[in-house]
């Protein structure tokens, strides 16, 4: 029987697929979580309805990528899945609770009349909880998890430290920026003007948060710095600060023009810069600084079999995602869509 592991670096391929799935999830679910974060500040019930309608056709499909990333981690790197899920059990549970709150709010708000404010609160609180939990999980992974003999050996609250919490607040700001630039595309008139103002504020806040998170890493003695300031990582990452500055000034300029799509795309580029930095910091580890992708990978026969399914399913998922966004293009209004 032919073994793909003889000619392909299967752990690296699966690590790349999982990283890609996580990044797509962050972008797609990030803007609808961002809309939820901004929800109470929209000014009127009609504006909030327009915001919810702008993401209603997409929000549940966006979470497909979370399932794909988590399922891929479980199947391709089962030992790493056990360590990460054990160490981050509480933040993961909080994230799922927040996503459930959002889902319930979606369904009930469209039908509610006298108690719509209750579901508005659920939508906002669920979005904040889910986002903050994801930021804590990211910060805890970059900070590192304690493991020994392929088991998690840390405590249940090791994630509760200044750096992960700072990452949680930074991600709230980042998702709010994604959400506000998405609203520039999907809304018009007063709500679009408001979205442009919010985008300007969130852009400044995001740059400050990125600087604060980077500086705090120096004082937290995080091993990720070795990946940034050692060769060849230093050569690859050296242009990134200049790219971030360029993106910042381009976006500041666009927010004062009539451009609608480019602010969102520039925000995506900012997220990409941060994501590349994180990947460089922890590669080749799947459990940061404890276990590499090669040490945690499943057997080559399992990875080969699953890769066939991934090659078939990924284009299908991308196709129906693109079709959904194409079908529901255009501006949203305040009329119920359910």
TrEMBL record:
It comes from the Bacteria. The chain crosses the membrane at residues 12-43, 122-143, 163-185, 201-219, 231-251, 263-286, 306-328. The keyword Cell cycle does not apply. Keywords: Cell membrane, Membrane, Transmembrane, Transmembrane helix. InterPro entries: Cyt-d_oxidase_su2 (IPR003317). It is a multi-pass membrane protein. It is found in: Cell membrane. PANTHER family: CYTOCHROME BD2 SUBUNIT II. Belongs to the cytochrome ubiquinol oxidase subunit 2 family. This is Cytochrome d ubiquinol oxidase subunit II. It comes from Psychrobacter saeujeotis.
């Amino acid at each position: 029987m032919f073994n793909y592991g003889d000619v392909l670096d299967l752990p690296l391929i699966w690590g790349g697929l999982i990283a890609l799935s996580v990044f797509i999830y962050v972008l797609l679910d990030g803007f609808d979580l961002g809309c939820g974060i901004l929800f109470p500040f929209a000014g009127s019930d009609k504006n909030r309805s327009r915001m919810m309608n702008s993401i209603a056709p997409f929000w549940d499909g966006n979470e497909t990528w979370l399932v794909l990333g988590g399922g891929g981690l479980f199947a391709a790197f089962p030992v790493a899945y056990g360590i990460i899920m054990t160490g981050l059990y509480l933040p993961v549970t909080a994230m799922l609770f927040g996503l459930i709150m959002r889902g319930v709010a979606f369904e009930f708000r469209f039908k509610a009349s006298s108690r719509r404010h209750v579901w508005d609160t659920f939508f906002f609180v669920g979005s904040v909880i889910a986002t903050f939990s994801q930021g804590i999980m990211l910060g805890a992974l970059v900070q590192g998890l304690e493991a020994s003999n392929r088991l998690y050996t840390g405590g249940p609250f090791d994630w509760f430290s200044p750096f992960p919490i700072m990452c949680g607040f930074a991600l709230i700001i980042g998702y709010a920026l994604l959400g506000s630039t998405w609203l520039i595309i999907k809304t018009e008139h007063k709500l679009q003007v408001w979205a442009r103002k919010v985008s300007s504020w969130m852009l400044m806040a995001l740059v400050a948060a990125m600087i604060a998170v980077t500086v705090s890493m120096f004082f937290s003695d995080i091993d990720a710095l070795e990946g940034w300031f050692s060769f060849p990582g230093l050569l690859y990452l050296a242009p990134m600060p200049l790219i971030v500055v360029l993106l910042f000034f381009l976006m500041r300029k666009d927010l004062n023009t009539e451009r609608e799509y480019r602010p969102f795309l520039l925000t995506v580029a900012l997220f990409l810069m941060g994501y590349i930095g994180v990947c460089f910091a922890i590669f080749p580890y799947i459990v940061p600084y404890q276990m590499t992708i090669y040490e945690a990978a499943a057997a080559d026969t399992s990875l080969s079999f699953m890769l066939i399914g991934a090659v078939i399913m990924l284009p299908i998922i991308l196709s129906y995602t693109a079709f959904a966004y194409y079908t529901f293009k255009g501006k949203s209004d305040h009329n119920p869509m359910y």
